[in-house]
Amino acid sequence: MSEAPRRRSPLLSWTVVAPTVALVVLGLTFGRHVGPWVAGVVAVVLIAAVLAAVHHAEVVAHRVGEPFGSLVLAVAVTVIEVALIVTLMVSGDSGTASLARDTVFAAVMITTNGIVGISLLLGSIRHGVALFNPEGSGAALATVATLSALALVLPTFTTSAKGPRFSGSQLTFAALASLALYTMFVLMQTGRHRDFFLPVEGGPAGEEHAPPASTSAALVSLGLLMVALIDVVGLAKVESHTIEDVVHSVGAPPSFVGVVIALLVLAPETLAAARTARRQQMQISLNLAYGSAMASIGLTIPAIAVASIWLDGPLLLGLGSTQLVLLALTVMVSILTVVPGRATRLQGGVHLVLLAAFVFLAINP
User: Fold this and answer.
1) CA quadruple 271, 275, 278, 283: dihedral positive or negative?
2) Which residues contact 106 (CB under 8 A, 6 or more apart)?
3) What pTM was estimated for this model as a whole?
4) Total number of domains constituting the chain
5) What is the pLDDT of residues 247-296, one digit of tens each?
6) What is the average pLDDT score of the chain?
7) What is the SS3 string spanning the chain?
8) Which of 208, 188, 225, 186 is nearest to 18 (CA)?
9) Do 174 and 150 meet the contact criterion of CB atoms below 8 Å apart?
10) Within a domain: residue 2?
11) How many CA atoms lie within 13 A of 26 on its CB side?
12) Which CATH number characterizes residue 92's domain?
């Protein structure tokens, strides 16, 4: 009679080992300008930390339920983004004056076109149509559009300060308004209108979920999520010089560094949204996409406004003409996608083409 297979200890799970190893690598490399081979190792460890963060964030999200789960993921991603922007701006290297603008705008384009486009494609493959709640998604899109206009469009046209930037009082107003809008949306999403952000009833049946983790397991995942986020922030800072060197070597403008950072920090969100879309839970995917875009502006701009007190040099927030056209087109297409409450693969393809145009023009402005 054969022996029963041994159960592997949870402590040996890759989702536990990866954040731990990443923390060790961070301690050995932080504050150093690493060579190409070490940078390659750091990149592999960084990817493992991102995947571990996705796993632990999903465990926590499944435990607390929707729409709180999407909120956990969005805030976690934004913490990474804010920390990366501030640490890179503190370094004072060339190009950091526009780093916040480039990263936030890239985050908006990646979430509203990339994550939404991928989710629509995956969500409509099986049944041809992806169903979602137009009330919740429309409210989220309206908030994202307003935040984008306040933080990224208006600085291009104001005249109190020279260049595409706010004066001190204008930056304070934009930061407070962004924080207020984000807070109001969170209260709506988690309060009286919570049902606007739940999967549509009567839609295609999704996959069966495993039961939620216990409270103790969820708390452990929350702790490991925090460790993984610290790993991602620190290792991305270690990789920042390598990223800048690669961007320079391919002839891309310095602003493309912001695109790379946004792609990096939104990797957990993209993977999570793709998984929920495959399970035919399109509303959760849109919650993740628009929630990340909203948090990216609503939390990053206030944080940068506070950090600007001790940061030297100007803070450029206003978008250029090409970026303004892409943003306007994205908002119009997103409205046409969200209003019906159902979308096909065509809408997903349109959003992905817009993302491709953004990335291409970021490399070849």
Assistant:
1) negative
2) 258, 259, 261, 262, 263, 358, 362
3) 0.82
4) 1
5) 778 778 877 877 887 887 787 778 888 888 888 889 888 988 998 888 88
6) 82
7) CCCCCCCCCHHHCHHHHHHHHHHHHHHHHCCCCCCHHHHHHHHHHHHHHHHHHHHHHHHHHHHHCCCHHHHHHHHHHHHHHHHHHHHHHHHCCCCHHHHHHHHHHHHHHHHHHHHHHHHHHHHHHCCCCEECCHHHHHHHHHHHHHHHHHHHHHHHHCCCCCCCCCCHHHHHHHHHHHHHHHHHHHHHHHCCCHHHHCCCCCCCCCCCCCCCCCHHHHHHHHHHHHHHHHHHHHHHHHHHHHHHHHHHHCCCCCCHHHHHHHHHHCHHHHHHHHHHHHCCCHHHHHHHHHHHHHHHHHHHHHHHHHHCCCCCCCCCCCCCHHHHHHHHHHHHHHHHHHCCCEECHHHHHHHHHHHHHHHHHHHCC
8) 225
9) yes
10) no
11) 19
12) 1.20.1420.30
Torsion-angle region of 7 (φ positive above 0: left; ψ -120 to 50: alpha; else: beta): beta
Q: What tokens does 26 get? A: 């961070």
Residue 95 is predicted with a pLDDT of 60
Contact 240, 234 (CB under 8 A): no
Q: What angle do CA 322, 328, 331 make, to 5 degrees?
A: 140
How far is the C-alpha of 284 from the C-alpha of 86, rounded, in Å?
30
Say if 5 falls within a structural domain: no
- Domain containing 88 equals 13-363
